[in-house]
Amino acid sequence: MLKPMTRSIVFGLLLSFSSVVHAETWQAESILIPDPSTKCPDTVRTFEFSAANGTMTVKTPANATFTAPISPDGAVSLSFTAASGAGTVIIAGNALNKNLQMTAPRSLPGCRYAMRPVAASATPESTIEWRVSVQQVSGNVQKCSSGNRGRVRQTGLNLYLYDAGRASGAPTFATRVNSDGSFDGDVRTTFGANSTARLKVAPGQGPRPMEYVTYANVCGYRVVPD
After folding, report:
1. Measuring CA to CA, which residue among 170, 173, 169 is closest to residue 161?
2. Cα–Cα distance for residue pair 40/35, rounded to 1 Å
3. SS3 (DSSP) at 140
4. How many other CB atoms are found less than 10 A from the CB of residue 206?
5. How confident is the model at residue 9 (pLDDT cuts 50, 70, 90)?
6. Distance CA 115, CA 118 (A)
7. Considering the entire predicted model, what is its pTM?
8. What DSSP string runs through 147-213?
């Protein structure tokens, strides 16, 4: 039978070993969970997670780091303000089995993204950004914005349009383009709750033209690189 001091040493070693075993780092992609009742931005971003000593740490694509405590059963809920203008983002679920979901309740109500673990990427996604003019080409001038200056950002295959006139800083829309850089389909916009538009993007990897038409008021815009 072990003496009390010996038992304490063994117990301490077991606790130390357990904390090392449960210290883990992984990468995960945000994958849209389809919902027929709502249209959500179908973008994929890579986050880095780590779980150690009862704490989950998340490194966002913008290289910002946030932490939250992990319950004994693995439950965790972490919230932060997104640099992209999406407002409050919540990542919640179970950190021990990596079953996590991401939501942005205020800016993207009804949209849910599964945080799917992936192999660590050897090279980060490249980002290119260019200035544009957003020009109204169709629609009622009394109901449609006359257009504005803006910028387009593409990170990997994720494309974002930012309008200089939008005080919130949120992108007008975000979507995932095809491998050749093109896109032709519906996207969710930030013009209103569940507002959508038809977007067409020309092929390419750098500055290129695009057009979109909102379903509400049928406002048409051409996005022209400077």
Report:
1. 173
2. 8
3. coil
4. 10
5. very low
6. 9
7. 0.67
8. EEEEEEEEETTEEEEEETT-TT---SEEEE--TTS-EEEEEEBSSSTT-EEEEEE-S-SSS--EEEE
